[in-house]
Specification:
Strand content: 5-15%
Number of strands: 4
Largest sheet: 2 strands, antiparallel
Shape: globular
Distance between the termini: 30 Å
Number of helices: 6
Order of helices and strands: HHHHEEHEEH
Helix content: 40-55%
Radius of gyration: 17 Å
């Protein structure tokens, strides 16, 4: 539910995958053909995509200093078999890991994570601390200590709860 601009580079894929589930309403965009088409997955691939999504969410919560939201398969285990190739640009010699075999979703996610590691941006992708949200967002704050996907919604709710708790 963020008003923030999308994450840079390949992290936009990770952010949009995590944000296919609206925890507050239960709406799962991977339940729809259009939602799956955004990620190039078939209906039978949706269970793996959901497992990958929740493992990513737990990792993004860890980036923000929070425990996992539930039991998950570790992200490293899900991405361990993701086929990647080293792609070297013949014009300028730049290199990057790229998905192999037509780019299945786990390979595209693994390539995005690898590139973000190289760029130093991986830990800036976080999940909102609000239990009813856990929406992914890219933390552009100078100190890298953002807590909520939206200051106007989740941040305001948290501050209001804290204020009311003081008066009680």
């Amino acid at each position: 539910m963020s008003e923030r601009s999308p994450a840079p580079g390949g992290l936009a894929l990770v952010e949009s995958l995590v944000n296919t589930l609206d925890i507050e309403t239960g709406a799962d965009f991977l339940d729809t053909a259009d939602g799956r088409a955004r990620f190039g997955i078939a209906e039978e691939e949706a269970p793996l995509a959901r497992e990958l999504r929740e493992s990513l969410r737990a990792t993004l919560l860890a980036h923000a200093g929070h425990p996992p939201h539930r039991e998950i398969t570790p992200l490293g285990r899900l991405l361990a078999g993701a086929p990647l190739v080293l792609d070297v640009d013949e014009r300028d010699g730049s290199a990057a890991l790229a998905p192999a075999d037509g780019g299945p979703l786990p390979s595209r996610v693994a390539a995005a994570v690898a590139q973000a590691l190289v760029e130093g941006t991986w830990t800036r992708l976080k999940a909102c601390e609000a239990d009813t949200c856990h929406w992914a967002y890219y933390d552009r704050s100078p100190a890298g200590r953002g807590r909520w996907c939206s200051m106007r919604v989740c941040g305001a709710r948290a501050k209001m709860r804290r204020y009311r708790a003081k008066d009680a």
